[in-house]
# Entry
Amino acid sequence: MRKSIGKIKLLLWLTVLPAVLIRPAEATWESLRHEPAEWLLDAKFGIYTHWGVYSVPAFQTEWYAKRMYEAGSGVNKHHIKTYGDPKQFGYHKLVPLFKAEKWDPAEWAQLMKATGARYAGMAVVHHDGFLLWDSDVNRWNAKNMGPKRDCYGDYVKALRDEGLRTIATFHHIRTFNWYLPGVGGMGGAIRPDLAEKIKSSGWDLTNPEYGDLYWNELAGCRYEDFLTEWQAKVREVVDKYRPDVLWFDGGSFRQGDSEQIVLNLLAHYHNRAAGWGKSVEVLNKLPVTGQFNFPAEYGILTFEEGRDRLGRVERPWIDDMKISDRAWCYVEGQKYKSANEIIDGLADRVARGGGLLLNFSPRADGTVPDEQKASMLAVGRWLKTNGEAIFATRP
# Structure
């Protein structure tokens, strides 16, 4: 009996020992550096989705929110024809039309499992700033408006029920001033002459009532307040849903006041994960700026559809790739990649030390087009037969 008790005590101590020995991460790049998560190196294949208010017009691009205010653009003309002039029908009026009325998170999760993906999730917030989780930080969220449900939370539960790990992708550090015509896709300052023109336009963009959605200086918003709320949103997702992977689109992560805020956030994620007893990872994207979001020694390097990736990458890496030929979200009239093209892309990347994060694009009501389903299910059948050559391999 004493021997049994002694074994139990030893096992309990060995369980606690790693947590005791792991020092808390500090908010410095040197302290945050870590060995890549082994499970993600083994996983090779994940799937996420662009789905949100921009899925309602389903026209041309997930950047609909910005393009609709650019006079003479195709999106602007479509918006005027379909919904009316942006003066009368601003982007915020599309929010109630995003209802997800046919969405079944369990059905999505079962589809992800059938594809052979080892982790899945969604873009929990895109550049438009609308949140797909139940948020206490900002009122423009899916639980409070539109679908009236915790989309990310419901999906995470369904994915975990299928035994899959989860990813949350964030695309909104660039949102400040992003909506304003004449400001680039990464946000930034607005020229005084353009500012006066926009102020006189009568658009909702400059109305302080909607400043917590549109986040721009012409609505009386301050960048420092935006950064504070940006961090609070990401922390909220981390604390509430415990995602296994975080991914960030391009933006100002190491410029000016943002760097320390980013460091504090990443340290918070890693320290929380240590408390959960989980191995988590951050994907470190190379955006169009040509500079990784974070130092290249941190996280797993990520390239958008292989853009700007060298033929050989020394560190572990992952490409994300959209299933469609045009937009990352659902838009009318686009075509979809065949299973063969996706498999070729996956095999090629795995052979060279990488992985693939595929993006699919559901309709606003939550249904997945049959063509996308067919391709993803065929990938799953191939992996069921050939997965030994993909999963847990090293070049």
User: Anything to note?
Assistant: The longest strand covers residues 119-125. The chain has 13 helices and eight strands. The beta strands are 45-49, 119-125, 165-170, 245-248, 281-286, 300-304, 317-322, 356-360.
